[in-house]
């Protein structure tokens, strides 16, 4: 089990951090700078926060010899994306006071605050905890927010799956008391090295780890992009087990073929009651065998490809003490959300709002935050964030529906009903100005891009056709662009690589099509494809399937093939 390769700097830092304490308290207390020390910035991720700076202001501040405009991104841990109206109101208040008047729904069903000043960090994190939520393990080399199918109207199984997502999240949490000491004024251990991490150990995982639960026919959490996925198997309305999916992941580095997006493999079936043990054991195998010398090669997907699935299955069975059963058949139809009003069998209403890029802030066009705050004040159901960056106002009673509809109209919250199929299925990552890794715009570009593509679709008679579009500002893949029928990945300011042909249900990767395109070139590249699709598609044929059938791109299932031919 011992790894003879030299551990990378992050491994040494984690090991010496006294279970994630580092010198965070000292860094927070230093009034001379809006930043923390570089090592503490790395450790803070495990506490759910990233140090960033406003990249729009970088050059000007440099010119003025000022330090960068530091601010912290704070990510909430919210398994399954469910929160109550009371929690909503608390997060809304924190966002208005300390987060620049914005909340952002992420592609893992949770909220992020951006631009929190160092001096407010503790107030914000403590405030989130007061709302009975927290931020621990929302980032860092640990299990991240557990995502879960959450369309309540599709199945009464939602509640059961949601419970499993919460239990998974709890079960895989770090146990260090550093979080309570730093953010919640918990009693300080006199000897922090006596703290404990029974599952993770002192070095935690080699890299981030992601878990999700899907309920066919919806693959709305992109189960094949998770390090560890569970596909719920249902017979006669009862949950009978979970197909176990291992080794998904999106991130890659352009021009480095040793890195690639990878679809998870379905390796077997476990009983519902075995899910915690399976998750813990898979995570422990990655803890013990993941590459701790090279962070670009440290995700679980590479451990699997390096050692092989047969090795992994044998290791898993030997640690579990039993073999998984053969997987059960399943079929996914979509990776998207069903926007609009839906009524369930009990007469409750659910409204799924489409939110481009998941950004909630008041603008002259739409008072997102104000409108949703007003709704939270009268709503007696719950809110559900989706992994497609949308929002479900769930369990609205018949009596409350007119008042909620009135508030939506008053605050000009868009009715997604007339939206094009492309707009309904568009995602983008944050990118500029906050993301330190962005090479191009993403969130701020998406509305323009969609508005330029819609007339082409309209002209081709495809306005209502559901087509998945995902944009990211760099190849790390935060909006899972390699699982979109149209994926655009930022390479340099104003330049994108175009990937085409993923499965509509997120079950096939797309493939590189064109590189280094400007916005005009993206539009020009897609126009003839839309036109050809409209003219020559088979009955019910999806855009991605059409592009593969006509040979525009190959059908890619194996991640290792992905970077062949791309720069
Ligand atoms: Fe991500 C890093 C934002 C989902 C793959 N991601 C980042 C950072 C923290 C940049 C950084 O390291 O400095 C971004 C912060 C931007 C900002 O200003 O907020 C960032 N990732 C996001 C979010 C907010 C995108 C969004 O638009 O919603 C998502 C937060 C999810 C959450 O709530 O936990 C987000 N990131 C993802 C996903 C999608 C998913 O998990 O389903 C992926 C692809 C799946 C995967 O993990 O393989 C993803 N993020 C990455 C990577 C590439 C990891 C790799 O294996 O190579 C990085 C870079 C890294 O870790 O070094 C990254
Ligand atoms: Fe930043 Fe790249 Fe992730 Fe977009 S994909 S948020 S640019 S790391």
Automatic annotation (TrEMBL):
UniProt pathway: Sulfur metabolism; hydrogen sulfide biosynthesis; hydrogen sulfide from sulfite (NADPH route): step 1/1
EC number, UniProt record: 1.8.1.2
Reaction(s) the record says it catalyses: hydrogen sulfide + 3 NADP(+) + 3 H2O = sulfite + 3 NADPH + 4 H(+)
Binding residues for siroheme: 478
Cofactor binding notes: Binds 1 siroheme per subunit.
Classification via InterPro entries: CysI, NiRdtase/SiRdtase_haem-b_fer, Nit/Sulf_reduc_fer-like_dom_sf, NO2/SO3_Rdtase_4Fe4S_dom, NO2/SO3_Rdtase_4Fe4S_prot, NO2/SO3_Rdtase_4Fe4S_sf, NO2/SO3_Rdtase_FeS/sirohaem_BS
GO terms assigned for molecular function: sulfite reductase (NADPH) activity
Pfam families in the cross-refs: NIR_SIR, NIR_SIR_ferr
Function: Component of the sulfite reductase complex that catalyzes the 6-electron reduction of sulfite to sulfide. This is one of several activities required for the biosynthesis of L-cysteine from sulfate.
Assembly with partners or alone: Alpha(8)-beta(8). The alpha component is a flavoprotein, the beta component is a hemoprotein.
Name under which the protein is recorded: Sulfite reductase [NADPH] hemoprotein beta-component
């Amino acid at each position: 089990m011992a790894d003879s390769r030299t551990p990378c700097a992050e491994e040494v830092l984690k090991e010496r951090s006294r279970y994630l304490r580092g010198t965070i308290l000292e860094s927070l207390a230093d009034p001379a700078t809006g930043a923390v020390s570089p090592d503490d910035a790395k450790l803070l991720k495990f506490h759910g926060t990233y140090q960033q700076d406003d990249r729009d202001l970088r050059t000007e501040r440099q010119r003025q010899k000022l330090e960068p405009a530091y601010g912290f991104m704070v990510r909430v841990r919210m398994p399954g994306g469910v929160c109550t109206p009371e929690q909503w109101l608390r997060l809304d208040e924190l966002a208005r006071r300390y987060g620049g008047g914005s909340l952002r729904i992420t592609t893992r069903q949770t909220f992020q605050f951006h631009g929190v000043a160092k001096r407010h960090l503790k107030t914000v994190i403590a405030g989130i905890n007061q709302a009975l939520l927290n931020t621990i393990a929302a980032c860092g080399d640990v299990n991240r927010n557990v995502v879960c199918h959450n369309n309540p109207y599709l199945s009464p199984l939602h509640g059961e799956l949601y419970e499993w997502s919460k239990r998974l999240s709890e079960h895989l949490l770090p146990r260090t008391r550093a979080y309570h000491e730093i953010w919640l004024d918990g009693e300080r251990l006199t000897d922090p090295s006596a703290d404990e991490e029974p599952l993770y150990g002192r070095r935690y995982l080699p890299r981030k780890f992601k878990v999700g639960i899907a309920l066919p026919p919806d693959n709305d959490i992109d189960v094949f992009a998770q390090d560890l996925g569970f596909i719920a198997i249902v017979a006669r309305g009862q949950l009978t087990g979970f197909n176990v999916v291992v080794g998904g992941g999106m991130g890659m580095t352009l021009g480095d073929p040793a890195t690639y997006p990878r679809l998870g493999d379905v390796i077997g079936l476990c009983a519902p009651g075995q899910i915690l043990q399976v998750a813990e054991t898979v995570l422990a195998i990655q803890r013990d065998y993941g590459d701790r010398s090279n962070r670009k090669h440290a995700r679980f997907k590479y451990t699997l490809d390096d050692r092989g699935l047969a090795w992994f299955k044998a290791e898993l069975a030997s640690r579990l003490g039993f073999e998984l059963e053969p997987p059960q058949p399943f079929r996914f139809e979509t990776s998207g959300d069903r926007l609009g009003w839906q009524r369930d069998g009990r007469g409750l209403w659910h409204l799924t709002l489409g939110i481009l890029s998941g950004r909630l802030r008041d603008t002259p066009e739409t008072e997102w935050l104000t409108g949703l705050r007003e709704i939270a004040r009268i709503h007696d159901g719950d809110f559900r964030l989706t992994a497609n960056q949308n929002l479900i106002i769930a369990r609205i009673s018949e009596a409350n529906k007119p008042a909620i509809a009135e508030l939506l109209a008053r605050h000009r919250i868009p009715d997604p009903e007339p939206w094009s199929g492309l707009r309904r299925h568009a995602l983008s990552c944050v990118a500029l100005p906050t993301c330190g890794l962005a090479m191009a715009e993403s969130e701020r570009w998406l509305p323009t891009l969609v508005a330029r593509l819609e007339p082409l679709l309209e002209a081709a008679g495809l306005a209502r056709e559901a087509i998945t579009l995902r944009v990211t500002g760099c190849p790390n893949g935060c909006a899972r662009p390699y699982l979109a029928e149209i994926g655009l990945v930022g390479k340099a300011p104003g330049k994108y690589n175009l990937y085409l042909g993923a499965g509509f249900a997120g079950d096939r990767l797309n493939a590189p099509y064109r590189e280094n395109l400007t916005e005009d070139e993206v539009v020009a590249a897609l126009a003839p494809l839309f036109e050809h699709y409209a003219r020559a598609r088979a009955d019910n044929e999806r855009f991605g399937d059409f592009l593969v059938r006509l040979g525009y791109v190959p059908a890619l299932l194996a991640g290792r093939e992905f970077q062949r031919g791309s720069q």
